[in-house]
Amino acid sequence: MPEVSKTTDGALNILEYLGDRGGTTIAEVARDLGLSRTVAYRLLSTLEVRGFIRRTAGVYRLGPKLFALAQHVEWAVRDAAHSHMATLVDGLRETVVLVVRDRQESLSVHRIVSRDHIVQVSYPPGLRHHILATGSGKVMAAFGDEDDLRHLVGENRAMGSELARIRRRGYIAGPEENQSGLWALAVPISSIDGVAASVAVYTPTDKDRVAAVGKAADQVVAAAAAISTQLTSAEA
User: Fold this and answer.
1) Which residue windows are coiled coil (predicted)?
2) Where are the CATH 1.10.10.10 domain residues in the chain?
């Protein structure tokens, strides 16, 4: 394992903590991250001076510098997926989300929202879940390598069987377990190195809307295949 700088690691832990909490104090950072108040203050002050966080009335939040840096991130998969996602949104009139894997989590990185319905889906970029907690995550896990799959599933035979069914089918379709009232159809996207992401169509659990998306499974599979081809060509 590469050598890790404790100071840098501590600062990054604070940024992740603020991302989850939204706003926090020195005392909360010290308590929850196991730091002394002196170390917590020094790390927070450094991040504040550099613009990565901001402080208002003693409460720290993520700062504008992070947003500015994020604009320079080049997600090859996002660039490859955008036009195909837009086509799906136009045809299905539902929200389409692009999700990538970040270790044991799924991370939403791009979303195109359909404005054709009063009831819409909220699945913003930056949303994280455990890889096995959503359809878009499960479909990535199902098409991962066998060692990774065994590590994720462990002794959970029911989950192992579910992922095997997803792999045979080629996609997942059904209600989202952790978001009541939401239904998804998700398909994996491949790159040279294996599964890179998933593209998912999300809709409220309205019978007619679910049926319409279900009938369009071939379109979503075709879009994922086109994204995979474009992504692989760009990486070659």
Assistant:
1) none
2) 6-70
Residue 215: CA count within 13 A, CB half-sphere: 8
Write out pLDDT tens, residues 142-167.
998 878 788 888 888 899 899 999 99
Pairing of strands 95-102, 105-112: antiparallel
Two tokens, residue 26: 């020195």
In order along the chain (236 residues), what is the average pLDDT of each group of 10 residues?
82 90 91 94 94 91 79 72 94 92 86 77 80 92 85 86 93 85 92 88 89 93 94 75
Read off the tokens for 22: 């939204």
Query: How far, CA to CA in Å, does 43 sit from each of 37, 54, 124, 187?
Result: 10, 13, 29, 41
User: For the whole prediction, is pTM greater than 0.70?
Assistant: yes
For 32-63, the pLDDT digits (tens) are 999 999 999 999 999 999 989 999 988 999 88
Class of the CATH-defined domain 76-235: alpha beta
| 112 neighbors 104 (Cβ within 8 angstroms) | no
Mean pLDDT in the chain? 88
Instruction: Report the interhelical angle of 37-49 vs 6-21 (nearest 10°).
Output: 80
121 CB-near residues (< 8 Å, 6+ apart): 94, 95, 113, 182, 202, 203, 204
CATH architecture group of domain 6-70: Orthogonal Bundle (1.10)
